[in-house]
Amino acid sequence: MIRRVIKRLWGVLPVVFGVLLLTFLLLHLVPGDPVDVMLGESAAVADRAQLRAELGLDQSLPVQFVQYLQHLAHGDFGRSIHSGQAVSSLLAERLPATLKLAMLALLIALLVGLPLGILAALRARHWPDTVATLFSLSLSAMPHFWLGPLLMLLFGLWLGWLPISGMTPASAIILPALTLGFGLSAILTRMTRASLLEVLSEDFVRTARAKGLSESHVILRHALRAALLPVVTVVGLQMGSLLAGTVITETVFGWDGLGRLLVESIEKRDYPVTQACVLVIALTYVLVNLVTDIAYQRLDPRVRLS
Amino acid sequence: MALVLSSCTPSAPDTAVHMGLAQAPVNLDPRMATDAASARVNRLLYQALVRFDAHARPQPALADWQQLAADHYRFHLLKPVPRFHDGSAMTAHDVVATYQSMLKPGASPLAAEFSHIRKVWAMDDDTIDFTLDAADPEFPARLIIGILPAHLIAAGHDFSRQPVGSGPLAFVRWRGPLVLQRQSDGQRYVLEEVKDPTVRVLKLVRGEIDLLAGDLPPELLVYLQTQPALKVEHTQGANFSYLGFNLQDPLLANPKVRQAIAHAIDRPAIVRLALVPDSRLAGAILPPEHWAGNASLTPYAHDPQLARQLLQEAGVHLPLTLVYKTSTDAQRVRLATILQAQMREAGIDLQIRSLDWGTFFDDIRQGHFQMYSLNWVGIRTPDIYRLAFHSASVPPLGANRGRLQDAELDALIDQRDWPAATQRIHALLPYVPLWYEGQFVAMRRGLYHYTLAADGNWDGLITVTRNSKNDHAD
User: What is the pLDDT of residues B374-428, one digit of tens each?
Assistant: First the structure.
């Protein structure tokens, strides 16, 4: 098992290299110069040249990329071009906030999506199914930048229950987590419903019922376990999307996480910070997928890591 | 859940004034700051040698001055000389250290402004002398850099994140929001970045922030004016909006085409219907009340028929297709669509390209545009005309983004003949002057004495007071 995991981890390396190379090229090829952003237009040409040299931007792109990889191999993400802070310390400040938000969003998605999906499957083509379907379709159709302000209006302004945005008080996490979580719960509802409906028509479920087991036992112990296999895959894939999704949600809600840091760094052409943020998000994607595969194997012994 | 519940427990009342910012400051070292938000905060944290009156003439702030020769100025610190926020007394040596530290190559993006300083030295604890490489009658107006303590400069202190000045507000902390404290009475301020204008407005209405100054589209301002818990004040502004042309473009190099575009735009209608209150038409970068302003410039009147006629005289086949670049800011895009509709009437098909700020600004700097729109913010001296229009200021040497080359204008700028220079610029039309957008503050009732500034600075925080007893009385 451990051997297989290590083998998979080795397989991650080309993916990470590809992400690094693509991010580096895209960042350096799109128009926009960090020196212009930092110095404005009044700065002397000599000062521009000096800053460019200090930042290493006067080197050719291949040289810059190799230097970046060398530093990365030593665990050095570099320093923010704008604030001068070590990128690793910026990540250490911002990543926990994003993980906290993503975890709570996932929890909300599971708490809403699974029961609704189960209910919709058990009462298929009846009104609970219609309500659950309508709910999930509506939520999945709403982009975060629209759903977020709607929730702000409802819970922040009209009901006055929760803060509109920001990091404090602690309850400020609820609205961004709901925004992220509702989108995912819609997918989970649909997935759980479809999967459970399929499993409920399987022979082993009929056998379990024929054995005289209670309906709740049949559903929870037999049908649901099998139905959750594809759901686990979706949760794993969506966990990565949750991290990427925070880019918009964190900006709307003023949540000082990785997503907001990424947006700010792109605006300022702060190359080291952007590269580090993209790398962390990509790594999280890959690792979550690996964990999903392992969980999948646990749930279904027929599956083997290859 | 425990965390959430803990937030519901009663806590001490928050008496700080919370201000919502569209853009957080980037750098609180006045030698390094180039963005508007940093400059506005630095005005609160530091004091400079000079300030400006209502006509933008330099006035003594920390020091008065004598011009001993065309290239020699002497400044005397005024009594009482203030103390820095770390308790040390300010002397002439701090002034010298501040300016000397900027003159080192690569030390400051603002150094070009001071590149003609030959020497700066302290005659005694209260007297500073500057000698220049060339005569500069506007030299005192340049000395608006906040003064830093010499001992901290020598120690390599990081002023960008931990500023130590002598201004009316002192730095407290900057982790997330920026927290400042008024020296006179300990009143605290929390400056919080909230990028989305709708979210800023919601936070103000709910009371999570106490005031907003500028940076809102007009419809949100109208909404705020209907809120009983809020009050909105506004005044005329001095920040200049313009439509810029690329004069190297074969079509736009023709003055008749530029004039046609100027006549195609109904600026009064836009100012009346699509901008915040107290916005007014502009004729030049510096407003008429500025000592170098020019109130005699005849505006290009809205006349679509004349615009068509000018285009035909220029030999252009209609419709004329032009590309207009702007940022992704919602209000900017909206104004672009208004311009597009107005120009259609004159036979101009305006293609809008909305780009992220970095890409947009880089395109403008590189000359990759036909038309664009931008603002000049916080301009105080007529040197802006050199920076924006002199032949020697084509990027990367300056901000002559339209690549205007005119020997007559260069001579007028070199002679500092501002009335003639502004007249010449008006005739050449490298920009269509649009408007000076009004300035406003929206704040919760119970806040008083926030004085608005024409350039949108936040000096009103120095005087703002909170009276919780009168929260709903005014």
Answer: 999 989 999 999 999 999 999 888 899 999 999 999 999 999 999 999 999 999 9
Contacting B residues, span 167-206, partner chain A, CB-CB under 8 Å: 176, 192-196, 198-199, 202-203, 205-206
Query: Which run of H or of E encompasses B133?
Result: none
Count of other CB atoms within 10 angstroms of residue A20: 18
Cβ separation B110–A46 shorter than 8 A: no
* Separation of alpha carbons A188 and A169, rounded Å: 30
Question: In this structure, what is the dihedral angle of CA atoms B73, B38, A30, A98, given to the nearest 10 degrees?
Answer: 160
Upper half-sphere CA count for residue B61 (Cβ side, 13 Å): 23
Minimal CA separation from A33 to chain B, in Å: 7
For the stretch A14-55, pLDDT in tens is 888 898 899 889 888 887 777 877 777 777 777 788 888 888
Confidence category of residue A74, pLDDT binned at 50, 70, 90: confident
Show the CA angle centred on residue B213, arms to residues B211 and B218, nearest 5°: 110
* pLDDT given at position A213: 87
**Residues B271-279: what's their mean pLDDT?**
95
Fill in the amino acid letter for A33: D
Please report residues of B whose CB lies closer than 8 A to that of A174: 4
Inter-chain touch A32–B203, beta carbons under 8 Å: no
Look at residue B163 and tell me whether its pLDDT is greater than 60. Answer: yes
Query: Counting beta carbons within 10 angstroms of the beta carbon of residue B106, is it exposed (0 to 12), middle (13 to 18) or buried (19 or more)?
Result: middle
B358 and A84 in contact by Cβ < 8 A? no
Among B residues 208-247, those touching chain A with beta carbons less than 8 Å apart: 208
For A228-246, what is each residue's pLDDT tens digit?
888 888 888 787 777 766 7
Q: What is the pLDDT of residue B2?
A: 41
Mutate to test the interface with B, among A157, A161, A164 (most CBs of B within 10 A): A164
Inter-chain touch A157–B192, beta carbons under 8 Å: no
Which of B108, B110, B359 has the CB atom closest to A30's CB atom? B359
Cα gap A271→A37, rounded to integer Å:
12
* Chain A contact present for B365, CB below 8 A: yes
Per DSSP, the residues of chain A read -HHHHHHHHHHHHHHHHHHHHHHHHHHHHSS--HHHHHH-SSS-HHHHHHHHHHTTTTS-HHHHHHHHHHHHHTT---B-TTT--BHHHHHHHHHHHHHHHHHHHHHHHHHHHHHHHHHHHHTTTSHHHHHHHHHHHHHHHS-HHHHHHHHIIIIIIIS--S-SSSS-SGGGGHHHHHHHHHHHHHHHHHHHHHHHHHHHTSHHHHHHHHTT--HHHIIIIIIHHHHHHHHHHHHHHHHHHHHHHHHHHHHHHT--SHHHHHHHHHHTT-HHHHHHHHHHHHHHHHHHHHHHHHHHHHH-TT----
- ipTM value, please give it: 0.80
